[in-house]
Amino acid sequence: MALLTIGAFARTCRLSPKALRLYDDLGLLPPAKIDPLTGYRWYAPEQLSRARLVAWLRGVGMPLARIATVCDLPPSDASAEIAAYWAQVEIEIATRRELVSFLVEHLSRGETDMTDTAPLRLRWATHRDRGLVRERNQDAVWAEEGLLGVADGFGPATETVIPSTAALNALAVSHAVARTGALLEALRTAVEQVADTVRTMTTLDPALAGSGTTLTALAWSGSELALVHVGDSRAYLLRDGELRQLTHDDTLVQSLLDEGRLTREEAESHPQRMILVRALHAGATAPPDVRSHSARPGDRYLLCSDGLHIPVPLNQIQRVLANQVDPEIAAAELAELVHHAGAPDNVAFVVADVLSE
Ligand code: MG
């Protein structure tokens, strides 16, 4: 078939002649023939499919070096390479989204100086008990400067080595090791370690088969605060008297609610409301979610296992958190409410206040 001029080829594949010359220089799309006298470039019609692929990949923003790799792969490998590229882009976008929401919130409060943000100071009270029904306590709680967390273990684990405690331990250790960098980056590394730890322990020890844990944690460093979450333990924020749930339950019932297939009333009494769709266990495919959260002085946080948020109505939790200034007293009152409600499950929680200067 006759060769196409650079202009005709450019029009057909929707790349500019200038781009075609660049791709020739880079060896990405050399012309079929270059006239030795005029230097004029000619392209073969068979080159159109490669040129269109280059144009599409430029359209999704793939760098030229990577496009060159993709173009030289057989279709199934090229498809896997494009999927891998896009997964990486989505991670980058998620990180930028977090930064953007931080900036939007920060600037909307009229604060333009971000270098001089005061380091966060928190005080907290924790509570953990077996409840009145369960024989063992598989809930764990962690509290130290920079890291507060609760984890609700499940499965046949014995009380001495339970995945919930292991997960919080692993988070504390990995977080401390990785903490020199930016908080979110450090936490992302840390939660991968945590997922690995739980996966390994519940795979290697037959006594722990089928065990796992939820994990909800608050980590802070300097003026930055972040949330780690997987499962159905919850993080709440009391701000300006209003109690807001910060985490999304990874439960079957929550998925049905999200899809509009259940009403909130039906969800509250659903027989399968304990079924988790995500947690830390041997078969878990993804580590817990990590996201930044913009804290303010006066904020009060509650991290709790479902041993608190299922039996005790939310308005009672809110009333205690809003009325009791001292976190120790608030925690003691919440523990009392759990026992009044029959304490059907293990319970672990942390009440934490962000202090002003
Ligand atoms: Mg529980």
Strand proportion, as a percent range, falls in 15-25%
Compute the CA-based radius of gyration. Answer: 27 Å
General form: elongated
**Structural classification:** alpha+beta
Distance between the termini: 78 Å
Ions and ligands: magnesium ion
**What is the typical, i.e. mean, pLDDT?**
88
DSSP helix fraction: 40-55%
Beta strand count: 15
Compute the number of helices.
Answer: 12
Structure, explained:
The chain is an alpha+beta fold and 357 residues long. It has helices at 6-13, 17-25, 48-59, 64-71, 75-108, 163-178, 183-204, 252-258, 264-268, 306-309, 314-323, 327-340, and strands at 4-5, 33-34, 41-43, 122-129, 139-144, 147-154, 212-213, 215-221, 224-230, 234-239, 242-245, 280-281, 289-293, 300-304, 347-354. The strands form three sheets. Strands 5, 6, 7, 8, 9, 12 and 13 form a seven-stranded antiparallel beta sheet that branches. β2 and β3 (41-43) form a beta hairpin. α3 (48-59) packs antiparallel against α4, α6 runs antiparallel to α7 and α11 (314-323) packs antiparallel against α12 (327-340). The longest helix has 34 residues, at 75-108. The chain is elongated. The mean pLDDT is 88. The site of magnesium ion has 6 residues, from α10.
Give a concise summary:
This protein is an alpha+beta fold and 357 residues long. The chain contains twelve helices and 15 strands.
Q: What key attributes describe this structure?
A:
15 strands; 5-stranded antiparallel sheet; 12 helices; 7-stranded antiparallel sheet; single chain; 357 residues
Topology:
Elements: E1 4-5, H1 6-13, H2 17-25, E2 33-34, E3 41-43, H3 48-59, H4 64-71, H5 75-108, E4 122-129, E5 139-144, E6 147-154, H6 163-178, H7 183-204, E7 212-213, E8 215-221, E9 224-230, E10 234-239, E11 242-245, H8 252-258, H9 264-268, E12 280-281, E13 289-293, E14 300-304, H10 306-309, H11 314-323, H12 327-340, E15 347-354
Antiparallel strand pairs: 1-3, 2-3, 4-15, 5-6, 6-7, 6-8, 7-12, 8-9, 9-13, 10-11, 10-14, 14-15
Helix pairs in contact: 3-4, 6-7, 11-12
Bound molecules: magnesium ion.
